[in-house]
Amino acid sequence: MTLTPNYIGVDIAKGWIDVFDPETARATHILSSPKRLANFARGLKNCIVVFEASGGYERPLAEALAAQNIAYARVNPRQAREFARATGRLAKTDRVDAEMLAQMGAALRLSPTPPPEKTRAELAEMVARRADIAAMIRAENNRLKQVRLAVVRRDIRAVLAHFAKRLARIEAEIATHIQAHKPLRDTAARLQTMPGIGPILSAALIASLPELGHMDRRQIASLAGLAPHARESGVFKGKRRIWGGRANVRRTIYLAAFIASRYDPTLKAFRNRLQDAGKPTKVAIVATARKLVTILNAMMKNECDYRKSATM
């Protein structure tokens, strides 16, 4: 007989976690040191730990749980907050949030989140760092357009030159990491058979969308934040809009679709047909991005490179 797991809620802060165990109704405050997190994980059994994605602060906890083979469910903070409102919990403290997450796990019977592969997790860190450097380059370029003082312009150019070297270095590290691991190398090679997807975009997709090939087309579009959602109430019929999903994935696929729809005949015809029908350019590109991610999903599921049949 399979026992129903106990859902334990954990609210994560920068230097500590707050834990609520509904079986004992006990709340615990634990510092987020590797030793204390390991001790916490060792003391668990027959449970699923529920916590929010917290911008990376949840990573040490997830690693400690995985090391002890303890299942965990990482949930979207927005979904957690909406669950709290739905259950009338308007107050927000660390303990209240931990208790709410335990309730959410039990009420929704949350399934465990598969632990990330080590090589993919390492790639995700490098891809995130590349994105940080690229964002700093954009910010400095914007400042360069606004300043007039020569000494300031020289300083900004020096910073940009430094960032350019760091960007090239991290991109080389990403390429080396992918080439050193066959599953990543094979996935990158397959993704790059699609026009518009080069080494950087393929690395971002591998790191941020490991579900490619493991979901149906509607699920993968929703996860990528590219599925249109209805806005209707009574006689009101609003426009369907995309929302939710992973913002970084949506940006990656939007850029890929913008490029691919210029060079790939199938996607170019699809985008042109929408624009000829009066759709705004951005709407047409979003629709093309949704089509692109379903093609990529089919490619990974069927283990085939891009060809016309993959669009079916």
What are the salient characteristics of this protein?
312 residues, alpha/beta, Nucleotidyltransferase, domain 5, 3 domains, 5-stranded mixed beta sheet, 12 helices, 58% helix
Strand and helix layout:
Blueprint: E1 6-12, E2 16-21, E3 26-31, H1 34-42, E4 47-52, H2 59-67, E5 71-75, H3 77-86, H4 94-108, H5 118-146, H6 150-180, H7 182-191, H8 199-208, H9 217-223, E6 228-233, E7 236-242, H10 247-263, H11 265-276, H12 281-302
Parallel strand pairs: 1-4, 4-5
Antiparallel strand pairs: 1-2, 2-3, 6-7
Summary?
The chain is an alpha/beta fold and 312 residues long. Helices cover 58% and strands 14% of the residues.
What does this structure look like?
There is one protein chain. With 312 residues, this protein is an alpha/beta fold. It has three domains: 6-108, ATPase, nucleotide binding domain (Nucleotidyltransferase, domain 5), CATH 3.30.420.40; 118-180; 206-311, no CATH class. Helices cover 58% and strands 14% of the residues. The chain has twelve helices and seven strands. A five-stranded mixed sheet has the order 3-2-1-4-5. Strands 6-7 form a two-stranded antiparallel ribbon. Helix 2 links the parallel strand 4 (47-52) and strand 5 (71-75). The protein is globular.
How many structural domains can be distinguished in the coordinates? 3
Query: What level of helicity do the residues show?
Result: 55-70%
The N- to C-terminal Cα distance equals 43 Å
Q: How is the largest sheet built, in terms of strand order?
A: 3-2-1-4-5
| Main sheet overview | 5 strands, mixed
Secondary-structure content class: alpha/beta
**Overall mean pLDDT:** 88
